[in-house]
Amino acid sequence: MRVGVLTGGGDCPGLNAVIRAVVRKGVQEYGLEFVGFRDGWRGPLEGDTMPLDIQAVRGILPRGGTILGSSRTNPLKNAGGGGGRNGVERIKDNLAGLGVDALIAIGGEDTLGVATKLGEQGVPVVGVPKTIDNDLGATDYTFGFDTAVNIAMEAIDRLHTTAESHHRALIVEVMGRHAGWIALHAGLAGGANVILIPERPFDIERVCAYVQHRFQTRFAPIVVVAEGAHPVSEDLATAGEQLDSFGHVRLGGVGQLLAGEIEKRTGKEARCTVLGHIQRGGTPTAFDRVLATRFGVHAVQAVHDEAFGVMVALRGTDIVRVPLAEATSQLKLVPPQRYAEAEVFFG
Ligand code: F6P
Prior knowledge:
Layout: E1 2-7, H1 15-30, E2 33-37, H2 42-46, E3 49-51, H3 87-98, E4 102-107, H4 109-120, E5 125-129, H5 145-166, E6 169-174, H6 181-190, E7 194-196, H7 204-215, E8 222-226, H8 254-266, E9 270-274, H9 286-304, E10 310-315, E11 318-323, H10 324-327, H11 336-343
Parallel strand pairs: 1-2, 1-4, 4-5, 5-10, 6-8, 6-9, 7-8
Antiparallel strand pairs: 2-3, 10-11
Helix pairs in contact: 1-9, 5-6, 7-8
The protein binds 6-O-phosphono-beta-D-fructofuranose (F6P).
């Protein structure tokens, strides 16, 4: 059996650990052969491959990024010069031409959404969930999240001390398009004084009241804001204009907006730090290496069992198989009661 592997969407620490586990177990235990597809769905769409054997995966466990490359190519939308054929047909033709019998797609909501559609059209595919945002509904955790939270927590720890020296408010903008998991966990772990998430539009007056309250101590306020958070009042909204091929707006700017409003309304100095892609780079934590490795092992097991159309998922401490369609049907947002747990520490 020849198995194609691809990594799509925003990269995250742990992708290489999945690839290594898939190849090591697949070759050593099942005698499978692998082919790497470059840059997400662009690889199978254009037939762009790279060798993927045990030698190719040596030494990659602690490395961030992905040796296969990634992209946000959407083959359901953009067939890119396929001579009239749609993206799904082109992928099917390329897989047949390359003698690829099955695919392992490692990705988030968008990449696995494409995998779901391909599965429905007869492509044997197994999905592996990945996203630093931790917002995939069918799994308790995705790898990459723990690393991102630790990076953000360390940044918050550092910002506390400089904020105190200068008696200023520091705003930390973290990733999180639809879900505020990174902001919530990093904010809790780092002792933030306000945490703002996309699920709960914020009232700027209330944020400023927390900031003022914190200034009454000998400490200085740290506000952690997810990039997708937005104010209740539309007058304050920032809007990105560029869309990617899955129709997502490129976010950014809410941290700066907050810094400006806080300065204006409190009279205190405020500065904004945008962590951005630092949260997605570098070596994965032990938790993410282990989770990614277990996902890889179970994904290749599913291929061996010919259990296609599924995604591997973490439920409690077990890895289970869930239908791909279920995996992408609902985003996992921060529930109000989880946010309420954090609100106790605001101000
Ligand atoms: O989906 C993961 C993610 O890191 C989001 O948190 C963020 O909004 C987005 O990717 C940024 O993507 P890009 O790689 O296009 O900057």
